[in-house]
Amino acid sequence: ELQEVAEGRDLASMEQAVQQLLVGVGEDPAREGLIDTPRRWPKAWLDMTRGYRQSAKSGAPIVAAGSDGLVIVRDITFAALSEATLLPFHGRCHIAYVPRRGVVLGLSKLARVTKCLAARLQTQQQFTQRLVAAVQEEVHALGVAAVVQASAHMCMVARGVEKHASTTLTTAARGAWAADAVARAE
User: Fold this and answer.
1) Burial status of residue 89 (CB atoms within 10 A of its CB: 0-12, 13-18, 19 or more)
2) Which reaction does it catalyse (predicted)?
């Protein structure tokens, strides 16, 4: 599996870059505990950014016998990397949509789309917007909304900005919810 991830990638230059980073922070890449790090990191990094090599389209059958009622999937967990610092943030998202003519997506597919889109470099705001756009494109819903709650933005923790646990909340909406503040609030 790791060979598939590494295929077509220049792992040797990635390993050299990690060695340079270690030296740059005053470490010895040859010391015990770090010897294998330059070899492990590129594979881990490629795995954390696998979303670039995956399609956000579910490929799943769409159910046309659903209802016209609201579909909500809550507490989908994700982990992502900040494009500004390359440091991680993680959390949960909630996705809601109003089907068009009863066309719904298998509920587990929303989690798959979330995981795929999260595995790319971006801000939390961009992730939220892309998630709504992907669901809208997939099911052509009358309206789509998402709420993304992320904690432990390591870029803030590393700079000492965030001393206590906090949550950053972002929202996005399209279609029927984009202009209806009451519906979005619900």
Assistant:
1) buried
2) GTP + H2O = 7,8-dihydroneopterin 3'-triphosphate + formate + H(+)
Name residue 166's amino acid: S
Threshold 0.70, pTM exceeds: yes
How would DSSP label each residue in 39-58? Answer: HHHHHHHHHHTGGGGS-SS-
22 φ, ψ (degrees, to nearest 5): -60, -45
How would you classify the pairing of strands 104-105 and 62-63? antiparallel
Question: Which residue ranges form the domains of the chain, and what is each CATH number?
Answer: 4-52 (1.10.286.10), 62-178 (3.30.1130.10)
Per-residue pLDDT tens over the stretch 127-170: 999 999 999 988 888 999 999 999 865 555 555 655 555 788 99
